[in-house]
Amino acid sequence: MLCLYSWQTKAGTGYRLDSAIVKYAAVFNYQKFGYAYDDNGNDTLKIFYYWNRNTSTWIYSSKYELAYDSNGNQILDIKYTWDQTTSTWINSWKYEYAYDSNGNQTLYASYRWDSSTSTWINSNKSESTYDSNGKIALDAFYSGDNSSSTWIGSFKHEYTYDSNGYLTLDVVYQWDSSTSTWIDSEKEEYVYDVNGNQTLYTDYTWDNSTSSWIYESKHEYTYDSNGHLSVSYQWDNSTSSWIYESKNKHEYTYDSNAKITLDATYTWDSSTSSWIGSSKYQYTYDSNGQQSLLVEYEWDSSTSSWIDSEKEEYVYDVNGNQTLYTDYTWDNSTSTWISRSSTNWYYSKIATSISVLTPTPNKITIYPNPAVTSFTVGTEGEAMVAVYNISGQLVLNTRVTGKEAIPVSALHAGVYFVKITTAEAVATKRLVVE
Q1: How buried is 50 (Cβ within 10 angstroms: 0-12 exposed, 13-18 middle, 19+ buried)?
Q2: Of 1, 7, 109, 197, which one's alpha carbon is 20 to 30 angstroms from that of 291?
Q3: What is the pTM of this model?
Q4: 368 preceded by cis ω (within 30°)?
Q5: Distance CA 145, CA 154 (A)
Q6: What single DSSP character describes residue 371?
Q7: What CA–CA distance (Å, rounded) separates 338 from 332?
Q8: 128 - beta bridge partners?
Q9: What integer pLDDT is reported at residue 93 of this predicted model?
Q10: Mean per-residue pLDDT for 326-333?
Q11: Residue 230 and residue 225: Cα distance in Å, rounded?
Q12: 261 membership: H or E segment, kind and range
């Protein structure tokens, strides 16, 4: 399920999300989400329920308690699960965050609850530092050592930028437990054109036997007249020539309002020397520029064509608040869309001029998506970019200027949500990392 929101200031009367109810058609089951906020509009409590059909009542499932510092930065997130036997909340996970004086996140730490000792156990931690321009300069990742109750180094990134603020170098280090030091592991170099579009990517690995960097691969990117990525190439050392990216290529189209309408991904089939479809998404917007439809297609190798796969529909009220989300799957046997789930959102008026949660028009884009080594935010000005995994954990937080590549080498393959904050809007996008 994918939903896009932004925090938007409305003078006089605003709307705040109170609850949401999800219906799963296949199992005829329901879920409900409840929210509470502090005086600044920050959500401090999220409670999840499921519907008990035998008793016709809502039953607690899990809840999250959140805390913020005086600047509105989230500093704590504790997850609990409901124990039906004792009718009490049981600790599950805890996440802690810290920030520097400029609001840049410097710490992320996660802990799991050990019921046998009734203590929090170290799980994962990342520490970050920033340069004078607010660019992330160092990211160090650690894992918890249960035997010593300490943090053990895992890997580290050091970043370098050019005079325009674009990332030009990413050096990766691994932790050497025998010497308790960081040692060289990988290196990535980036080159950009005059418009700030990434045109070249080269990666290396460290050879301990020769104490030198060994060339691994090189990739070149081209763009259309609007500055959108059109084709990517990979350097073939055996023929000393550029070939189509062996992994994938991406095609994008946009409407007159610069909103993305098509995102198609292909993989190269060396046996037939042709592109094979991998995924395709088509986007539709209403007259207010809000996304109303997303259709996903899959490639049918037998007919070499795209076929329907999944569909998402969005409905909004007159105030622009999203009130309904429905997702479908395509049934080939009946050639019809079958509803899988639907979500209703309910709002209350707040007679004050504060930030409220509303869907955002899809003005901000990210590409390529899926991302292999990095992704770019399609915005001209400065933006804060926060990446969350599917569990809602913040795994990356950085500031970018213009179309700057953001490396994803530190992220595991999977689905993430990218929150992009600019001076004009806040948008959340789904990102696939391969």
Answers
A1: middle
A2: 197
A3: 0.65
A4: yes
A5: 11
A6: B
A7: 10
A8: 139
A9: 94
A10: 92
A11: 10
A12: strand 260-269
The amino acid that residue 312 corresponds to is E
Rg of the chain over all Cα atoms, to the nearest angstrom: 23
Q: Coil, helix or strand for 92?
A: strand
DSSP code per residue over 21-69: EEEETTTTEEEEEEEEE-TTS-EEEEEEEEEETTTTEEEEEEEEEEEE-
DSSP tag of 422? -
- Pair 15, 349: CB distance under 8 Å: yes
Q: What digits encode the pLDDT tens for the residues 287-319?
A: 988 889 999 999 998 998 999 999 999 898 888
Examine the pLDDT at 402 and tell me if it is beyond 80: no
Q: Go through the chain and tell me how many residues it has.
A: 434
**307: exposed, middle or buried (Cβ count in 10 Å: 0-12, 13-18, 19+):** middle
Q: Which pairs from 145-151 meet CB under 8 Å and 24+ separation?
A: 146/121, 146/122, 149/121, 149/122, 150/122, 151/122, 151/125
Q: How would residue 390 be classed by pLDDT, with cut points 50, 70 and 90?
A: low
Task: For 243-272, give one letter per residue: b (16+ CB within 10 A) or e.
Answer: ebbebbbbbbebeeeebbeebbbbbbeeee
Dig out the tokens for 52 from the structure.
């008990």
* Residues 423/399, Cβ–Cβ less than 8 Å: no
Name residue 419's beta-bridge partners. 386, 428
Amino acid at 260: I
